[in-house]
Protein: Probable tRNA sulfurtransferase
Amino acid sequence: MYKAFLIKYGEIGVKGKNRYLFEDALVRQIRYALKEVDGEFNVTKENGRIYATAVSDFDYDEAVAALKRVFGIIGICPVVQIEDNGFDDLAKHVVEYFDATYPDKNITFKVNARRARKNYPMDSMEINMELGGRLLDAFPELKVDVHKPEVLLQVEIRNKINIYSVEIPGPGGMPIGTAGKAMLLLSGGIDSPVAGYMIAKRGVQIEATYFHAPPYTSDRAKQKVVDLAKLVSRYSGPMVLNVVNFTDIQLAIYEKCPHDELTIIMRRYMMRIAEELGKKSGCLGLITGESIGQVASQTMQSLYCTNEVCEMPVFRPVIGFDKQEIIDLSEKIGTYETSIQPFEDCCTIFVAKHPVTKPNLNIIKNDEKHLDDCIEEMLKTAIDTVERIEIK
Ligand code: ATP
Ligand code: MG
Structure:
């Protein structure tokens, strides 16, 4: 029955000159999302509205699911579009639409007609009255409520006529591409994909970096991160995933630094490399899935030590979330099942039995000096040999 979707989007931050940037970015993201759907669509901007119109048969559920992943959309209205073949024909379609959409007629309604085309022979008030009357004739159980109707039936007279009444909530946020780029430190865990999602939701384009330590971490662990990047990219659009070979650096830290500081020192080098890669590709910030107190490396003292190596702002959108809240969100966005696959992104030999929970920055810096003779070379090699995977 539906041939098109009217896309509703928020008005915040889209005034003046920014408005068309916002709308164009939204149109691009809608096109990208609908590519995954069985069916062809035209996505157009008309008179301050965005429509996704099907130009072939299409899978309705898939289309709605895809649109629900486009940041910037606040409402998705499935629209019946008809040609203007006179008022009687319109009324017939409206009655059919109502019957198909609301099997239970024990409801209140109101018709809200609008004419974008003023040469239509009736004005909005007349259309409202007349269509309301036809609906009441067809379904006598219906009641009109002009203040708080359960169903607000919209009829828009344009070149074609749009009929709709249902609004499916979108994800909100801002369209990707309206807010610069940031580098996500993406592990195979639950938290970092959620963190990437949350920053992308504000319109930020994402690039990702994964630290891989073969043979201590398996190819399966890497594949899991690729799979997670794909899941995040369903929201964020295509992204580059940098896979850094971190083995030599990890081994050097393991050999030369106190074992209770392994994780902190390792995390400091991860941040350094991610920032370096981020600078090269125009990122304006880093993103991690850290949450205060979750593990030893995420206490306030530990965060202070890892943060200290970065010049760029580090965004930690799940910082105040409990684990369960992060899990709930990962289930909602569809990354949870992949995140809990048992392929570890960090080999247990590199995890100390008793890691420091209150690292002291001066002591850490001092212990890092043990790496002075080799670390610069290793960092350079890690960055030069990075594998760039295009995630679509
Ligand atoms: P996650 O569920 O995201 O893996 P975690 O609870 O396992 O988080 P940590 O292992 O302490 O936490 O990592 C904290 C953050 O550091 C992660 O959220 C991620 O952003 C980054 N990180 C950790 N390990 C890696 C890795 N191997 N590659 C890329 N980023 C990583
Ligand atoms: Mg992890």
About this structure: The first strand starts at residue 4 and ends at 9. Residues 16-34 form the longest helix (19 residues). Residues 187, 189, 345 surround magnesium ion (ligand 2) (CB under 6 Å).
